[in-house]
Write a structure and sequence with these properties.
Strand content: under 5%
Distance between the termini: 41 Å
Mean pLDDT: 87
Helix content: 55-70%
Number of domains: 1
Low-confidence stretches: 386-430
Oligomer: single chain
Largest sheet: 2 strands, antiparallel
Number of strands: 2
């Protein structure tokens, strides 16, 4: 009994040594699990053949993005994707099992990087790291579906590891490479830009952004020289129409509303508003808001100081994960492979709330179950959204009853307060 008690006590710790030991053990277990999946579970074809067809056009000499396409439609990813999957085409000779081995490597490398982020952050107890290896859907995305999303998130997580160390230029270079594979990583861009403006010098910010821009130009230069509009339109099409059948979060809407420009514009506006509120009232609250934080950093730089504020590793990680989560919450549509965009940040965000542990695990489990329901249904989507709206209304009513406050304050508290209800509200969009 004492042994069990000691073990449980040890697993509840957040020190670097314990987290590292548990992470190493879980990594080994998950590596074995990936091998079992590879040997026992059949591969499912979705996009691999299309990827190979898209890059074949490039390898045959085509540089006009309007003429690059596969069996599922036109090529809609930036130049980094083309180079990556052209290399995979050569390495694998288009053989799926060989490609799966490479993607198992991508998955395990990503897991190692994520474990490093968690160990350095000391954000969760050691036992909670197991949540990072239990997702059926995420294993499928990497090992059985071979989506480019997995590679993109590997690069994004590596960049976060560098940001934690405040190696902004190196981090931005890797971040830009991730964007060149798939532009969903841009959801991290607003909080990242805020961190640059408030936590480092203007000169470092300029160098980092310039390096990122050079990467983007380099990734697209072959295509930009031939047909720049085609490359930009296809690679970074913010107005892209999604297929209603694959939507996980808006299935309860009529298809015409789902496809409407009105819904897209509304979600974008709410997304930007949420980012602004978090930036001003949460991420720069200790400085008195975003304007004061940025101006204070500029004044400090003018006086010769490197920065006016020492950003903590925890703050950097929280801002980046939260900013990405906000983008997911108000996404135009979520397809199944998009789950890996934020899955690895869910335990971190849950332990940033004051929820009871059992509630944290329950929320994690609910999200996992939802993402494994196929096909998504109006009932599942409506259940998530209805719970979200009820929570918003109840929290707003509670705030209004306690004290007469400005509407903005009420909305901010409902949206951003670190409470169990609020996190369930956010997760309801997922």
């Amino acid at each position: 009994m004492k042994l069990i008690t000691s073990l449980l006590h040890c697993l509840s710790r957040k020190d670097t040594f314990t987290l590292s030991i548990v992470a190493s053990f879980l990594f080994f277990i998950d590596a074995l699990f990936c091998v079992i999946i590879f040997l026992k579970v059949s591969y499912t074809e979705i996009d691999w053949i299309a990827y190979m067809e898209e890059v074949k056009g490039y390898l045959d000499g085509e540089r006009d993005y309007y003429n690059l396409r596969g069996q599922t439609g036109p090529l809609v990813y930036p130049g980094g994707f083309v180079y990556l999957f052209a290399a995979l085409r050569w390495l694998t000779a288009e053989d799926v099992p060989t490609a799966q081995v490479y993607f198992i490597g991508v998955y395990l490398l990503n897991l190692a990087v994520v474990f490093a982020i968690y160990v350095r952050s000391k954000a969760v107890p050691a036992w909670a790291l197991v949540l990072l290896i239990l997702s059926k859907r995420v294993h499928s995305i990497f090992v059985l579906r071979l989506f480019n999303d997995g590679v993109t998130m590997l690069l994004a997580h590596i960049s976060i590891l560098f940001f934690q160390s405040k190696r902004w230029v190196t981090g931005l270079i890797i971040f830009s490479v991730a964007v060149s594979v798939k532009m969903n990583v841009l959801l991290f861009a607003p909080p990242l830009f805020l961190l640059l403006c408030t936590g480092t010098s203007a000169w470092t910010t300029i160098i980092a952004l310039a390096a990122a821009a050079i990467i983007q130009v380099g990734a697209g230069i072959e295509f930009l020289l031939v047909n720049p509009w085609a490359y930009l339109k296809r690679s970074f099409d913010l107005g892209r129409k999604f297929i209603f059948f694959w939507s996980v979060n808006w299935k309860f809407l009529p298809e015409d509303i789902f496809l409407s420009s009105w819904l897209a514009a509304s979600l974008l506006a709410i997304h930007l508003l949420a980012l602004a509120l978090f930036a001003h009232f949460r991420w720069t609250r200790s400085e008195g808001g975003i304007i004061k934080a940025v101006s204070a950093n500029m004044h400090a730089a003018a006086k010769g100081a490197t920065t006016c504020r020492e950003l903590t590793l925890e703050h950097i990680t929280t801002v980046l994960f939260t900013g990405n989560f906000i983008g997911i919450a108000f996404a135009r549509s979520l397809h199944y492979q998009f789950y890996c965009w934020y899955f690895f940040s869910v335990p971190y965000l849950l332990w940033r709330t004051n929820m009871p542990t059992i509630a944290r695990v329950a929320v994690w489990a609910a999200i996992e179950v939802i993402w494994n329901m196929y096909p998504s249904s109006p009932v599942s989507s409506l259940g998530l959204q209805t719970n979200t709206q009820k929570t918003f209304r109840r929290r707003a009513e509670d705030k209004q009853k306690t004290s007469p406050r400005h509407l903005t304050d009420v909305f901010l508290d409902v949206l951003a307060e670190d409470t169990p209800d609020t996190f369930c509200t956010s997760s309801g969009y997922l």
